[in-house]
Amino acid sequence: MVSKQFIRNIAISSIVLVILMSAFAGVGCVDQESEDGESGITEDAVSGSIIVKGSDTVLPLSQAAAEDFMMENPDASVTVIGGGSGVGIAALIDGEVEIAMASRTMKDSEIQNAQNNGINPVEHVIAWDGIAVVVNPENPIKELTFDQLKSIYDGSVSNWQELGGEDRPITAITRDSSSGTYGYFREEVLLNEEYRQDALVQPATGAIVQEIAQNRGAIGYIGFAYLDESTTALALDAGSGFIEPTPQNIISRDYPLARPLHYYTDGEPDGLTKEFIDYVMSPTGQDITSDVGYFPVM
Q1: 232-233 and 121-135: which strand pairing?
Q2: Which of 190, 199, 189, 247 is nearest to 219 (CA)?
Q3: Higher model confidence: residue 189 or residue 3?
Q4: DSSP conformational letter for 169
Q5: DSSP string covering 220-259, please?
Q6: Could you give the CA distance from residue 106 to residue 85 in angstroms, rounded to a whole number?
Q7: Confidence (pTM)
Q8: Is there a contact between 277 and 262 (Cβ–Cβ < 8 Å)?
Q9: What pLDDT band is residue 178 in, cutting at 50, 70 and 90?
Q10: For this UniProt entry, which residues form the secretion signal (predicted)?
Q11: Which of 87, 102, 155, 220 fits a disulfide with 262 by CB distance 3.0 to 4.6 angstroms?
Q12: What 3-state DSSP class applies to 25?
């Protein structure tokens, strides 16, 4: 006959076993949650899509950053489109893009138009650049003062011989008016006067490089990142002596055509827009900036 004490001992053992099994099951759940959290498979994963549009100067930087960013975040899509600073800013004003790329600051009229459209532009300086004034490598001219440069682009001078060079007509090349570089050069060099009427207008920086490489009498201006052996960059004198567009001179701001490069967003960025801008501004992103040929924000 089974004693009452034996039955009591069996019951106690069963209760202890249930408690132990529950405890181990709890540990397993905690470990699984921890593993999930460490793997990043949560709502914190970077995903979604944004459009970045505008400056052809900023374009190579943004393309390189977007490519690496999407490799690290395969669920995120960052589409980068050129067209000029004015095109990107107009797209931001119209609410068509998350980020406008610009090689100049927004005009007061653009900011007003944006605000009238319910857009609050916020500026982000993401890098520095230098505008290089370039000629064909066969051109003996290797330096120009700002006054001489202005005389070329306002039409006062039309032959290189007038500047101590060859007896050869000058082909002055400029970007189209939607380009931020066009506006910056007009402000800094032409002092807001008009470009010469016979200036050769090119829609993209690459076209300027190609034309100058083929035309011994041509002169143009391009972002530092577009420099290669097919053109020669001139030393410029804005009143403090001739200074070459070297990385050291641009970083120190001694070169007279050093300038910041911008992103513009509607208000302070959040979500994927913030993630991407933070990536561009991170040490990794600033290394990409240097690799492309621009200069980190100091």
Answers
A1: antiparallel
A2: 199
A3: 189
A4: B
A5: EEEEGGG--TTSEEPEEESSS--B---HHHHHTT-STTEE
A6: 9
A7: 0.75
A8: no
A9: confident
A10: none
A11: 102
A12: helix
Q: Which residues face 243 on adjacent strands?
A: 236
Is 218 within 8 Å of 207 (Cβ atoms)? no
- Give 255-265 pLDDT, tens digit per residue: 999 999 999 99
Residues 6+ apart with CB under 8 A from 107: none
Give the tens place of pLDDT for each residue, 197-215.
Answer: 999 999 989 999 999 999 9
Structural domains of the chain sorted by starting position, each given as residue range(s) with its CATH number in brackets: 48-128+259-292 (3.40.190.10), 130-258 (3.40.190.10)
β-strands 121-135, 258-266 pairing:
antiparallel
Tell me: pLDDT of 243 over 70: yes
One-letter identity of residue 36: D
Please give the Cα distance from 122 to 25 (Å, whole number).
Answer: 51
pLDDT, one tens digit per residue, over 4-25 is 444 445 444 544 444 444 444 4
In this predicted structure, what is the pLDDT of residue 10?
Answer: 46
**Which ranges in the chain belong to alpha helices (H)?**
4-39, 59-72, 85-93, 108-116, 146-153, 180-188, 205-214, 247-251, 271-281, 283-292
pLDDT, residue 298, reads: 67
Query: Which three-class secondary structure state does DSSP give residue 77?
Result: strand
Q: Which helix (H) or strand (E) is 71 found in, with range?
A: helix 59-72
Residue (of 209, 253, 164) closest to 57 by Cα position? 209
